[in-house]
Amino acid sequence: MEPKEKIILTGDRPTGKLHIGHYVGSLRRRVELQNSGEYDKIFIMIADAQALTDNFDNPDKVRQNIIEVALDYLSVGIDPEKTHIFVQSAVPELTELSFYYMNLVSVQRLQRNPTVKTELEMRKFDGGTPTGFFCYPISQAADITLFKATTVPVGEDQKPMLELTNEIVRRFNHIYGDVLIEPQILLPGNQACMRLPGTDGKSKMSKSLGNCIYLSDSAKELKKKVNSMFTDPLHLRIEDPGHLEGNTVFTYLDAFCEDADFEQFLSEYKNLDELKAHYTRGGLGDGTCKKFLLNVLNSRFEPIRERRAMWEQRIPEVYEILKQGTEAAREQGRKTLDEVRHAMRIDYFEGSSFVEEQDQRFAKK
Ligand code: TRP
Asked: What is the spatial distance between Cα 208 and Cα 121, in angstroms, rounded to a whole number?
């Protein structure tokens, strides 16, 4: 179906505080999109039901992180006047829709999902893969389509979910009639943002590896983490030529810095290309680069820290924002689900067409 409105749907699992990988991977973009005025509706979901698929034995962790993630959203500039922030499990229409979608996806198709495969290797569920976890890509398709989202800003790891979503939409529309919208994925602008490494430079930023910089880290914590960041192990003396490949400080600069930062913090250089050239040539120390990075990060995150501190003192208001956002999400969801039920011919108790048609069928001639 051709979309009538431009709608954004995206979200995060509340399994921990959000880190700066989330920020460059998606949060920063969401705020820009929100403020562009180009979208008719914006929904951001705290995906607690999805979080439970691999944290079912730790419900309190999910419960606590609902508010942490809400605080992270508000502090980066998600504006509840423009964006509905809502809680997944409080929209039961999502669960119902997921159940119908299960008929449209084979077990074999789910087994091919590369993101789920990687997660399964990392999680090592003893006692086998929980069915709920195995099926979460289907539930994610419901998340997106219940809101008729046209645009889904997410990180690269969510690509397989969007592919599956589009397959489900096509299949549904083909079998039941044109109801659902095929969404488009919106990926981060550059490679550094796509997959921001942890401070150890080894792999993606991830809580379980302890290599994260959190949005909620204090200036002091940030300084400590930046100073201990992985750079170039071959760059022993300042005059040695340095390497950029795999150098986390430069990857972060790729993700964060803008030309204006040089004017403000390191005016000997005009832009990142000049800084990189000097580093590669030799004669530029890691300390200078780290100090610059720290300044850049602080300039981005200081306002975010301040807003977080403010919202932390207004938890009942945060709660109201979630409650109202969830109500708005349900209203939107109910509309789509009505259309889905009608298309699937299971709308028995809407109007009188079902009873009339059956009555006719059995009427004595
Ligand atoms: N899978 C996403 C994550 O791990 C969270 C999520 C759930 C999501 N449903 C979504 C993202 C729908 C975008 C759209 O962070």
From this structure: 14
